[in-house]
Design a protein that fits this description.
This protein is an alpha+beta fold. 52% of the residues lie in helices and 16% in strands. A hairpin with a 2-residue loop joins strand 2 and strand 3. The chain binds flavin-adenine dinucleotide (FAD).
Length: 380
């Protein structure tokens, strides 16, 4: 048993950490305050191939394993949660095409996505359908030579900046989980329109939008995977996506810990550094312990995914624990910073807002607990 990253993964982690410090950390606060999308960060990551980490070299990606992807998301989150979320959502769209697409679809879309020319968005949620994904109402009607889609997608990450959208739509009876299919739709397709960019509590620079589809005609070959398998496939894709959100939470928690350690060593009260007070030390100890535990859960799930092994329960455990641990760590970080923790000029309040997003996006903590319990029941 080995709990360390091997030489290759450690080298990759260090490389991304360096790039994140150079490209993502500067202006992260300004982008957060203004809610401006990190276009330049994405361009810089794309130049390094980091928008195609898991995309095989034959489709112009780096062809690396899921462990590399989560290391990249973790290191980006240490500098900028919004950039990490952007990469995570883009990778979800790439992963769906890679796993369920046919050869022509992979050749058509993946090279542009891996090179960053086209960001991916992945749209399952709707206004009335969140946790209960099987209740979605966006409909795709079969027409000669193609499909016509109508409906509205909610909370679409990259919803107003993507080049390619993966849209889950109903092709069968209402409420039937086998009546949903996935479609790949290009941003310039007539009738597809981002109608509102959503103003969020955290990851404010990441783009979250409402996307409307009005009489969107797409050809037959836009169907991604088998007809009626869209939800089942999407839930499988989410297993890996959740590990990414767990990694993002680990990066945010680590950033909160590092900022708190530095501040506690610097800040003096009663003639001593606050780091010398046991109350502060206990908070730091809890933060470090929980973030380490979260990291182990995330790496285990990514390792299983890299082996092609089932990881539904492990992915949910990683996402559940890491996101809640990151929120706890960031909350303690604000406490350790005292009044300064409440100021926007210190990064810890941003970590807290960003970490909260991790408890909700790609399935809430409550839904992760349901999945874990369901998987546990299977073993009895
Ligand atoms: C920043 C951000 C980015 C996102 N990006 C995307 C994206 O790119 N693509 C996409 O498709 N979606 C995206 N989402 C949507 C996200 O997946 C949903 O918000 C999430 O799944 C919860 O759905 P909901 O918001 O409709 O809440 P609801 O499902 O309405 O839940 C409300 C509350 O009820 C609880 N609840 C619901 N059902 C149960 C149950 N059976 N048992 C116990 N408690 C329950 C929930 O846990 C929650 O506390 C994003 C969300 C956010 C915040």
């Amino acid at each position: 048993m080995n709990f360390e990253l091997d030489e290759f993964h450690e080298g990759f982690r260090k490389k991304v950490a360096g790039l994140a410090r150079i490209h993502a950390a500067p202006y992260a606060r300004k982008r957060d305050v203004q809610g401006t999308f990190p276009f330049e960060v994405m361009e810089n990551l794309a130049e390094e191939g980091l928008l195609g980490i898991g995309v095989p070299k034959s489709y112009k990606g780096l062809g690396l394993d899921p462990v590399c992807l989560i290391l990249a998301i973790e290191e980006l989150a240490r500098c900028d949660g919004a950039s990490a979320l952007t990469l995570a959502a883009h990778s979800l769209a790439c992963g769906h095409i890679l796993q369920m697409g046919d050869e022509a679809q992979k050749r058509k879309f993946l090279p542009a996505m891996a090179s960053g020319r086209s960001l991916g968005a992945w749209a399952l949620a709707e206004v009335r359908s969140g946790s209960d994904a099987a209740s979605l109402r966006t409909r795709a009607e079969k027409k000669p030579g193609g499909w016509v889609l109508n409906g509205t997608k909610m909370f679409v990450t990259q919803g107003s900046v993507a080049g390619v959208y993966i849209i889950m739509a109903r092709t069968g009876p209402d409420q039937d989980r086998h009546g949903i299919s996935a479609f790949i739709i290009e941003a310039d397709t007539p009738g597809l329109r981002p109608v509102a960019r959503l103003d969020k509590i955290g990851c404010r620079a990441s783009d979250t939008a409402v996307v409307r589809l009005k009489d969107v005609w797409v050809p037959e070959d836009s169907l991604l995977g088998q007809k009626g398998r869209g939800l089942v496939d999407a839930l499988g894709i989410l297993d890996q996506g959740r590990v990414g959100i767990g990694a993002m939470a680990v990066g945010l928690g680590q950033a909160a810990l590092e900022a708190s350690l530095a501040f506690a060593r610097r800040r003096k009260q009663f003639g001593r550094t606050i780091a010398s007070f046991q109350a502060i030390q206990w908070m730091l100890a809890d933060m470090a312990t929980e973030i380490s535990a979260a990291r182990l859960l995330v790496y285990r799930a990514a390792f299983l995914a890299a082996q092609g092994a089932p990881c539904t329960m492990q992915a949910s455990m990683a996402k559940l624990y890491a996101s809640e641990a990151a929120t706890r760590a960031a909350n303690k970080a604000v406490q350790i910073h005292g009044g300064y923790g409440c100021l926007r000029s210190y990064p810890v309040e941003r970590y807290l807002r960003d970490a909260k997003i991790c408890e909700i996006g790609e399935g809430t903590s409550e839904i992760q607990r349901l999945i874990i319990a369901r998987e546990l029941m299977k073993t009895i």
